[in-house]
């Protein structure tokens, strides 16, 4: 899968095979699917699935019907059916796995009703397609200038030429409804082509453009994530995260999708914890929860009016006190249920890579014994004077 040296060059294009993301292995592209059924034979009296998956710009994929007189394989450049004219794409999947992908994406279209593939792309088709792709960056810049001149509150994030160069699709994001009728007229006049406007969400925009997340890896939405589920601030609260928008927001400006990844594990762990608003009634006074630590399985409580003194209780002991309170009784104090957790010094710091001790600055710096050095200097001077006198 993929090239062995697909690092980025000075112009942002990948090195290695020099195909700039159109190699036959399809490993340089986003949302690549590995055909793990390619080496398996079909059962007897079973016909192969007559459909393929075709990828277009920025991971956009559609399913098409394979013509009877054409044999397609992964990496073939094909001319596909479009609303008007034809489009150019790359085959990314063939065979039975296409049926699995259609079921995963809830595409219930019958094979005979799928759009058609006209032919394998000729060299003329590929030249027109590549020349159109080269003009996209300049057209995107000019279209943004036109939108700003019209005073529209929208952002044209990306454009895509149809394979035959007869139509341009402008992808934009906007927080409010935008009247772009005049914009379409100006764009069609400026570029002498048919124009189509498509509004995408902020998450979809980030998935199309790609980028590097705060974790140092490529964005999940542009590599493997195919569905965008809503992320709520309660997911951060359950995981005891600081509600800092700068840290919780992703490239799209929305809450990070990865907040949902471990949410189920946190919810399962919190089932054993008592609720935060649950008070502990003791003869010494009522105590309320201040903080919990899900990983250590402990809670910190403090008496009302004495919030400076915290007492650490395990989940088991906190539930014991709550059970006693539910029976109408009170415990003497929560100090009786406090467990002192002693952490060995060996677990605090381990010098595994030859580092200095973390407590090297805790010890006071020893003062030099200047008197002793002065006496030694005088003794040596007297010894030298006696030697010179002899």
Give descriptors for this structure.
alpha+beta; 19% strand; GIY-YIG endonuclease; 5-stranded antiparallel sheet; 390 residues
What would your notes on this structure say?
The protein is 28% helix and 19% strand. It is of the alpha+beta class and 390 residues long. Among the domains are: 51-121, GIY-YIG endonuclease (3-Layer(aba) Sandwich); 131-200, K homology (KH) domain (GMP Synthetase, Chain A, domain 3); 207-269, no CATH class; 272-337, no CATH class. The strands form three sheets. A five-stranded antiparallel sheet has the order 2-1-4-3-5. The protein has a four-stranded antiparallel sheet with strand order 9-10-11-12, with helices on one face. β3 (77-81) and β4 form a beta hairpin. α3 crosses α4. The chain is extended and about 105 Å long.
**Unreliable runs:** none
Order of helices and strands: EEEEHEHHEEHEHHHHEEEEHHH
- The number of helices is 11
Specify the helix fraction band.
25-40%
Distance between the termini: 91 Å
Stated plainly, the CATH topology of the domain at 51-121 is called GIY-YIG endonuclease
CATH architecture of the domain at 51-121: 3-Layer(aba) Sandwich
- Rounded to an integer in angstroms, the radius of gyration calculated over CA atoms is 34 Å
Helix and strand content put the structural class at alpha+beta
> Regarding CATH, which class of the domain at 51-121?
Alpha Beta
Largest sheet, in brief, is: 5 strands, antiparallel
Number of strands: 12
Strand order of the largest sheet: 2-1-4-3-5
- Would you tell me the overall average pLDDT? 82
- How would you describe the oligomerization state of the chains in this entry? single chain
- The best one-word shape is extended
Strand percentage: 15-25%
